[in-house]
Amino acid sequence: MHNLSFILNKPYDIEFAERPHPNLSGDRDVLIAVNYTGICGSDVHYWQHGAIGHFVVKDPMILGHESAGTVVQVGSAATSLRPGDKVAIEPGTPCRYCSNCLAGRYNLCSEMIFAATPPHNGTLTGFWVAPYDFCHKLPDNVSLREGALIEPLAVAVHIVKQAHVTPGASVVVMGAGPVGLLCAAVARSFGATKIVSVDIVQSKLDFAKDLASTHTYLSQRISAEKNAKALLKKCNLTGGADVVIDASGVEASIQTSLHVVKMGGIFVQGGMGKADVSFPIMAMCLKEVTARGSFRYGPGDFKLAIDLVANGSVDVKKLISGIVQFRHAEEAFKKVKEGAVIKILIAGPNEQVDDELSLDSSGKGIMTKTAGIC
Ligand SMILES: [Zn+2]
Ligand SMILES: [Zn+2]
């Protein structure tokens, strides 16, 4: 049982090495063999820069946090799971004792131990130990590959909950990367009837329309106010959108958002980009906009994400551009950096796949291989 791991030493310096096989550290722990891991923008950012904000990679760190796996061993008190169960791994363990944890906002726990956030190792490894209640059992009709998409879907669920999307709402989502696409899909499943995806890449908008959006808007190189006006006109959103979600982190999109949201509407910042931006605070004030942040996921978000996949509301298979073997993980990172794919999954070191994505870098466009491979 190999515990080969994908380790970041410093920017662009990757190493594959065997790491000690982890053991259960308490009777509520579960040992999981990792089957599939999706590559996230944050993993790529650490690989390129060795840091995100004040999180700096000082010692070698295993990357990855979007994983699904198979239960191998359970502690005596981990009664809800059995060896052989397929699970989506929730990759952050909170302290459970601080005021935020006790208030049910464990994503805001200051003692959070989160995978692939320095100094903590991630899940691009053979085996992973986690508390049983952070390993979410996948029903029979949800595959392990879909299971690796549950983490980003839970991020989207949390964002859309923060946006208080209600039946009949109009929702504009800035950015059609994985999280923006998933926000659009979750908004639709929450009953939104007009869902507008916005991006600067037409092929991503085409994809959004195929997945969930009712309308799209190709952002222009004009002022935020003008973009907002053109968007509202094109999408017949007189008076503005009920909800605007920024899933891009781009300053111009954030500015446009505040001009797109209606009087008294809701704006949620889901994307992370520059730490500081110029923000149209006058529009926010005059329109009495409710603005919220959104960070990772909290109670019930993983469960709902799994339910949305299981009941067919969100087809996460469509987002999987391809699968690569573990030994090709670094090439997969390069693909994600090039923007050539939506979501690449890395098969765990103990997982063999026979439908590997070809990694020659000739394929332009956002999908080198399309859906339906789960
Ligand atoms: Zn992520
Ligand atoms: Zn806590």
UniProtKB/TrEMBL annotation:
Metal-binding keyword on record: yes
Query: What is the superkingdom listed in this entry's lineage?
Result: Eukaryota
List the molecular function annotations (GO) for this entry.
D-xylulose reductase activity; L-arabinitol 4-dehydrogenase activity; L-iditol 2-dehydrogenase (NAD+) activity; zinc ion binding
User: What job does the chain carry out?
Assistant: Xylitol dehydrogenase which catalyzes the conversion of xylitol to D-xylulose. Xylose is a major component of hemicelluloses such as xylan. Most fungi utilize D-xylose via three enzymatic reactions, xylose reductase (XR), xylitol dehydrogenase (XDH), and xylulokinase, to form xylulose 5-phosphate, which enters pentose phosphate pathway.
Q: In which pathway does it act?
A: Carbohydrate degradation; L-arabinose degradation via L-arabinitol; D-xylulose 5-phosphate from L-arabinose (fungal route): step 2/5; Carbohydrate degradation; L-arabinose degradation via L-arabinitol; D-xylulose 5-phosphate from L-arabinose (fungal route): step 4/5
Enoyl reductase (ER) domain residues:
9-346
What EC number(s) are associated with this protein in UniProt?
1.1.1.12, 1.1.1.9
Enumerate the cofactors the protein uses: Zn(2+)
Describe the reaction catalysed, as an equation.
L-arabinitol + NAD(+) = L-xylulose + NADH + H(+)
Keywords for this entry?
Answer: Arabinose catabolism, Carbohydrate metabolism, Metal-binding, NAD, Oxidoreductase, Zinc
Q: Name one GO biological process term.
A: sorbitol catabolic process
Its taxonomic placement starts with: Eukaryota, Fungi, Dikarya, Ascomycota, Pezizomycotina
Family note:
Belongs to the zinc-containing alcohol dehydrogenase family.
Name this polypeptide is given: L-arabinitol 4-dehydrogenase
